[in-house]
Amino acid sequence: MDYQVVILAGGFSSNLVPLVSKEVPKALLPVANRPVLSYVLDLLESSNLKDLIVVVEGEDAALKVGGWISSACVDRLHVEVAAVAENVGTAGALRAIAHHLTAKDILIVSGDIVSDISPGAVAATHRRHDASVTAMLCTEPVSGPSESGGAGGKDKSKKPACYDIIGLDSSKQFLLYIATGAEIKKDTRLKKSILCAAGKMEIRSDLMDSHLYAFKRSVLQEVLDQKPTFRSLKQDVLPYLVRTQLKSEVFSDEKSVEENGNGNGKNNMQSNEVVLSQILSNASLPSFHQVYESGLNSRKTHKCCVYIADESKYCVRLNSIQAFMDVNRDVIGDANHLSGYSFSAHHNIVHPSAELGSKTTVGPHCMLGEGSQVGDKCSVKRSVIGRHCRIGSNVKVVNSVVMDHVTIGDGCSIQGSVICSNAQLQERVALRDCQVEAGYVVCAGGEHKGETFARK
Amino acid sequence: MGAQKKGEMGAQKKGDVGALKKGDVGAQKKGGARVSDESEEQSRQRLQAILLADSFTTKFRPVTLERPKVLLPLVNVPMIDYTLAWLESAGIEEVFVFCCAHSTQVIDYLKNSEWYSHPSLLVRTIESHKSISAGDALRFIYEQEAETSQIQGDFVLVSGDTVSNMPLADLIQEHRERKKKDEKAIMTMVIKQSKPSPLTHQSRLGTDQLFIAVDPLTKQLLYYEEDKIDHARGTICLDKSLLDSNPSVLLYNDMQDCYIDICSPEVLSLFEDNFDYQHLRRHFVKGVLVDDIMGYKIFTHEIHSSYAARIDNFRSYDTVSKDIIQRWTYPYVPDINFSGNRPLKLGRQGMYRASDAILSRSADVGSSTVIGYGTEIGSGDKILNSVIGNGCSIGSNVVIEGSYIWNNVTIEDGCEIRNAIVCDDVKIRAGAVLQPGVVLSFKVDVGRDFIVPAYSKVSLLQQPTKEDSDEELEYADSSSGTADHLSGLNLQMESKASELGPDGAGYIWEVCEGARDEEWKHSVAPIPEDKLAEITQAMDDDDIEDESVVPTSGELKSDADSINTDLNDPVDDYGYFEREVEGTFLRAVEEGFAVDLAILEINSLRLSYNMESADCAGATFYSMMKLAVDTPHNSAGELLRNAASIMTKYKGLLGFYVKQIDEQIEVIMKLEEMCQETARELGPLFSQILRVLYNIDVLEEDAILRWAEEKAGADEADKVYLQQCEPFIQWLKEAEEEDETEDEEEEEDG
Question: What span, in angstroms and rounded, lies between the C-alpha atoms of A332 and A322?
């Protein structure tokens, strides 16, 4: 497949402080003891997409990610790691690496997706319609919108649940309208011209854009060049293309000449090809785009398509602490086919080298990493525990994520919390809905609720 | 205001009832006798319908001045017959025909027709003379209802110009079941797919394009907009709450409203409660959807295989006629007797011919034509896609294309008629030409060789002039007022000084200004090519404008919006704010309350209008100057003294708001603005007022100097006051030089 894949792996996302740090950029956050990026790479590999560019914000983070990639999958995939400046936005990141892009179509994936939707299907849809852009949409995951969960009072105040408002044509193949971010809070304003051309539009607020796009490279580059103010793919580039689909500007005549001829001429050729191929294959009725184009001379259109994933598919972005907890829970729970591990009869994974004390129970939907030790009379439920952790006696871990090399003293109780690598909890600490930064030491005997432990 | 209006309306309505009761008693007697039977069969309600035999529009003028629209022939059968025949076959048992305009004609027609004695359909008439809208009609029916309670449950509401063959029983059942489950489901309206033209944005029936939003699961109607072709508002605005409560909303542009509604009795009472509802869609549906009255809901029902259309204008007359000829409306087609009409014989290529029609051998009668009884077609005639009524006589070498010739029309030799409607008893003399879109009303006489220009409407009656200015024309019914007009006009038959040639008779109606451009849209004639080209061109232009309006980016959009609102609102708000401050200040002066109190009040205004301290300073100062100017004075000196005393007295108030340099500059600007615009007499006193303000420590010298600096770069015209103050500023500067060092530092800080 002539696709180039760009993985936008981000950098140190501020939403995820204190989970991320200089040592652990967002892409390397563990989900069931594997970096989240590995899920994306596996997903792409399963669709035979092996020509990848991983874009990381910040040099340091890029080094870290590059290091992990070279150790993990250099033999299987052809991966380039590119560093871009921080806070340039998704569109900015693409602008910065534009010279790397050569293929006809570009698949852009967010590096924090944990999903089982085949990107190959999206790519195929894109090709089939000869679309300028194809976006993957999915229904809200079973575990509920990532940010509206009950735990983590801190997250609640940060962002309310953020859906997209999406307008589809009657065949559910074309994207006619999209509103994201702040626009959702306002009344929806639709352009009549697009509705008139399409006749029907279905407006859905139960779908969300899952940050996987296929772009025609020429279109993408032209938009990025023409609109230097665009920062975000989702909020700027995609809505722009959707808005202008019936009077396409991306292939205007003057531009195309300068753009090494891959603009207008090509478009004409392509559209001819499409019409021809449709006639030949007797595929389907011409889309409303073509009807519109033929009705009004001198009009150019481009197509914005969607691929709507089946409801049973799983797709969550790891973009908040709550989402981090959800993803970890789901990957060892409801969506355990994603983890790539084989589960025991008790629906849990206890590494053979892990040591359990007497009367300690590890419930279903749990994971205990390599070389970890758990003392006597402990109880672990629906939690992930990393490698080489030392857990004392009488410890309760419920609904939590404990990363690698964590030391937990006797009599601790941990609920709904995240303990990062190398952190230490002294005796009888009770945590509920807390986050502990890497390497932090929580003093003995405290009882905490909804707190974040980090060095200032 | 509302109460007053209600009072008036109430009074008017009572009048109506009084006047009309007598006329209706006859029609109701029968109903009274049946009530007892019906109470027994509560379980099975009678299927009832209300048929509005009046369209409450003026679109069919001038024809409707003489005959009600429902009696106009549609392929040689009056429209109301199609509606009644359909209702009858759809299982409706009782229909209330609401007559308003030309009510006697309608009632007479019904009495003489077989409908009055129909075995399965009980036809009753309700007569009113003052209703000018569907809303009025339903209110009238509701009032009657209170006395007679004839309408027992859900009913079908249609207008008398509906042609349909859709089954109703299931739909009514569906409506009833939904009503049982959900009390609030008061109406089901019928929609049918019909894509409007992408160019003219009107449906094939000539109605404006429709935008509706429907819940795909429940089919509840969520949004309804009948769009006047208005490119300025190129967007649809869906309320946020709508999308919040529905995960999926279907938005249609390709639907046509058939104006067939299944209503529950609540609909009538809603009209009664909301006396300002006139139009069924524009007011009632909108009211229910937007104002969310009692949580009432409207549902839609889409029909796929059956036909339903309403004749709203001349274009839909044309379209529906063709549909009838093409047999889409089966069984309501010319070769079937469905309402006592004499069936015609169907020949090849959709040619319907009466058995006794006389066709010359050399006449070329093409496809899709209807020729009525007793009609004679002369030699060499060419007739295509046209309907010709009964008893017409058509000379030789006549061309008739796409036209509707009603009954007893005489067309002499060599006429050319294209896309026209020719009413009963018209005479078209030899060699006359009707250009496309012409409507000739009853008994018009077109002179020899006369050419009737395109889209003209010709009538023996003069065009009523008085209602042109009437703003309520939209729903003021043409025909309802006809009785008055007729008496006023007195059928000016004798005036042979016709506009249709020396031997003709009739007036060509002027098209009122606004409608001229619209004429081609609703006419029987197809839209000419050049118009289409024009529209295409206009659309391109629109889009270009459109593009400039649409912000470039999603993110920028929100910013741009907020900037716009920030810019726009304060302009308006500031005016109000200023006035409020002025009022407060005047009260303070009159009632002599303390400065603190005034500050408190102005502060609260400031908060409620979201103003800056600088705005308060400006507004307060403005109020003071206004007071000074308004205080009687004889000379400029006196004015200055007044102003000075006011300023001195309230310097605490002003001083409260001018603590910053910027606010002080605002005051100077305000003074300048006043001198230039609102209070020119202050102009000569500018520098003196400035000096007073300086002396009472309202203005610091920094502020004055900064203002002078800013102004130095302005246009000559703007510098008038600066020049006036030159000596004062010079003096300030000299005073400043004494402690130069300090000031320099301050300036740098600033």
Answer: 16
